[in-house]
């Protein structure tokens, strides 16, 4: 197990901003940020997510214009949707269930679409890039509650571009499904993203520049150079590039046998989210593996998520140094509190660092870890990087 464990929440991303000054959201400012986005704030996009706006107007009496300027708790929205959906499902009431399911799905896709753009703006933050270098060089275990792929991107950047390119890659035809063995281990960055998550997927998009190329997970991970990295990057609530085949065809003329064969299989795919449309591969709709911020999260019902939580518990149970950044342990996320309480039931870390402007979090973390010594507290990532550099 790793001596050092990082735990990150959404607040760690606040140093990253796009060309318009927008930043990755927290639970209370998602709509304030997203509705200022050039694409998502467009009237055509707003028409697409009208069911979401109608739902919020019904229960919170807020208009789209008011959502642009007023805080709104997206966790409360997802939780109410979950409770109402469960009730409709238990009563087998399709007339109620289907509209709720549409609102929930459109909100998830909107969130994923907004987050997906920020991967290309990590270079706007020196602190975030240096965080990637620290993680790449230290090789700690990383636990994150975030859906975005900013951490992956900054670790890749720190690892550098691969200089050894397989000869066959230069002659590869996108139409060919016969991928040479030497290309299975090729990534355009030295840190190969599909190996970083601590879990194996049924199907993998090879992480390299150019046309999308997919291979069966069984073949990809069987390659002798494709062992999962250790320590891992564990995404406890899923990720915007993790999917599961729905078994539903986007086009009516698809081969039903092929659609059925892929149903339920997991897919690692750094695909594009666009205009609140359901993403698809081979004409089969794929659903994001994302645990929405609801009060009663169903972790065991989602593929690969239970494996990740088990590994997270193992890492915490043996760690000596714990860094908690941008996460406040909200009451709606008691699963994470439970993770800490159980992992530290018979020992405490030797050192704790907290990156958070809210100093109330300090005592909460100390209580969860049964930690009695002083804690190093940094207001933000900039301060942490400065402190780290001084003591390096």
List the helices and strands and how they pair.
Blueprint: E1 4-8, H1 30-34, H2 43-48, H3 50-60, H4 64-67, H5 74-90, H6 94-116, H7 126-138, E2 141-144, H8 150-159, H9 181-184, E3 203-205, E4 214-216, H10 217-222, E5 233-235, E6 238-249, H11 256-262, E7 266-268, E8 280-281, E9 284-290, H12 305-318, E10 321-325, H13 334-343, E11 351-355, H14 360-369, E12 376-378, H15 381-391
Parallel strand pairs: 1-2, 1-10, 2-5, 3-7, 10-11, 11-12
Antiparallel strand pairs: 3-4, 6-7, 6-9, 8-9
Give an overview in words:
With 392 residues, the chain is an alpha/beta fold. Among the domains are: 22-119, no CATH class; 238-290, no CATH class. Helices cover 39% and strands 14% of the residues. The chain contains 15 helices and twelve strands. The strands form two sheets. The chain has a six-stranded parallel beta sheet, sandwiched between helices. A six-stranded mixed beta sheet has the order 4-3-7-6-9-8. A hairpin with an 8-residue loop joins strand 3 and strand 4 (214-216). Helix 5 (74-90) runs antiparallel to helix 6. The radius of gyration is 21 Å and the shape is globular. The relative contact order is 0.14.
TL;DR?
It is built from 15 helices and twelve strands. It has 392 residues and is α/β, with parallel strands linked by helices.
Average predicted local confidence, pLDDT:
92
Shape: globular
- How would a textbook summarize the main sheet? 6 strands, parallel
Through-space gap between termini: 23 Å
- How many beta-strand elements? 12
Beta content comes to 5-15%
Strand order of the largest sheet: 5-2-1-10-11-12
Please state the structural category. Answer: alpha/beta
Radius of gyration of CA atoms, rounded to a whole number: 21 Å
Q: List SSEs in N-to-C order.
A: EHHHHHHHEHHEEHEEHEEEHEHEHEH
Work out the helicity level: 25-40%
């Amino acid at each position: 197990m790793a001596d050092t464990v990082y735990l990150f929440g959404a607040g760690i991303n606040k140093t990253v901003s796009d060309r318009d000054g927008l930043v990755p959201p927290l639970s209370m400012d998602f709509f304030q940020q997203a509705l200022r986005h050039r694409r998502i704030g467009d009237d055509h996009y707003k028409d697409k997510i009208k069911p979401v706006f109608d739902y919020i107007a019904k229960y919170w009496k807020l208009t789209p214009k008011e959502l642009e300027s007023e805080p709104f708790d997206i966790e409360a929205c997802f939780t109410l949707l979950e409770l109402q959906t469960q009730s409709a499902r238990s009563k087998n009431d399709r007339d109620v269930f289907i509209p709720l399911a549409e609102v929930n799905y459109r909100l998830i896709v909107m969130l994923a679409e907004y987050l997906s753009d920020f991967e290309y703006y990590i270079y706007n933050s020196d602190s975030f890039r240096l965080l990637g270098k620290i993680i790449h060089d230290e090789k700690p275990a990383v636990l994150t509650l975030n859906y975005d792929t900013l951490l992956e991107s900054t670790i890749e950047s720190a690892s550098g571009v691969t200089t050894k390119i397989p000869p066959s890659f230069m002659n590869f035809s996108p139409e060919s499904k016969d991928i040479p063995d030497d290309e299975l281990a090729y990534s355009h960055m030295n840190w190969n993203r599909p190996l970083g998550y601590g879990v194996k997927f049924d199907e993998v998009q090879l992480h390299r520049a150019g046309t999308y190329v997919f291979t069966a997970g069984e073949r990809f991970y069987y390659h002798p150079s494709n062992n999962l990295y250790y320590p891992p990057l564990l995404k406890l609530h899923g990720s915007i590039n993790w999917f599961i085949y729905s078994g539903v065809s986007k086009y009516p003329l698809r081969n039903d046998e092929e659609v059925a064969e892929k149903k339920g299989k997991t897919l690692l795919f750094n695909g594009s989210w666009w205009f609140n449309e359901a993403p698809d591969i081979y004409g089969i709709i794929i659903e994001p593996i994302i645990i929405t911020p609801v009060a009663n999260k169903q972790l065991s019902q989602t593929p690969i998520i239970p494996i990740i939580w088990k590994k997270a518990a193992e890492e915490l149970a043996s760690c000596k140094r714990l860094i908690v950044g941008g996460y406040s342990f909200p009451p709606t996320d008691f699963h994470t509190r439970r993770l800490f309480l159980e992992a530290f039931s018979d020992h405490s870390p030797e050192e704790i660092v907290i990156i958070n402007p809210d100093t109330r979090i300090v005592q909460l973390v100390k209580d969860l870890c049964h930690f009695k010594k002083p804690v190093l507290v940094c207001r933000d990532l900039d301060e942490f990087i400065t402190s780290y550099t001084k003591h390096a």
